Amino acid sequence: xxxxxxxxxxxxxxxxxxxxxxxxxxxxxxxxxxxxxxxxxxxxxxxxxxxxxxxxxxxxxxxxxxxxxxxxxxxxxxxxxxxxxxxxxxxxxxxxxxxxxxxxxxxxxxxxxxxxxxxxxxxxxxxxxxxxxxxxxxxxxxxxxxxxxxxxxxxxxxxxxxxxxxxxxxxxxxxxxxxxxxxxxxxxxxxxxxxxxxxxxxxxxxxxxxxxxxxxxx
Length: 218
What we know:
By secondary structure, the protein is α/β, with parallel strands linked by helices. The chain has helices at 2-21, 39-52, 65-75, 164-169; strands at 56-60, 80-83, 98-101, 116-119, 123-125, 130-134, 150-156, 160-161, 177-180, 185-187, 193-195, 202-208.
């Protein structure tokens, strides 16, 4: 125990010394903050991560998006839908059911009566499959994506980055952020997986991009 304690204290002293010697008290970081990759490579990696997390994944071009949203909502059995108030209502025009913009001032408990919600996303890290919802008109309030059972999330090509440092750099630290990596899930002491405890049981991600995935070198 004494050796371990000495090692910990030594590291603390070394870190403090580095901080004191660095300009403005900043310690130089050598970790990688960006990775060269194409949109197609990031998309392929993201799909792999999302499927591994048991999310449903669909792809669509901007012109195909209204039909794709309608199709996934129908497949999910949704009849009552709320969407982030800043989304274009035309995106839900093909849906054969009740689709209304969310009222941020309404009681969040009323969202429990909704079958599904549709929102955009702010930024996504392909390497970890982490989708960030930043509170605002197109991503909605936090309750909108935590209370209902099914979340349909739009992830656009230009919002997908490779890693976490690039993702965090695009977030506003003054706004609430929900980070989503697959449907809500937890396990008990016997490792029995239960979905939907802390958020949506079903996550349907629609990747919006101009066309077929890019060809990557073999």
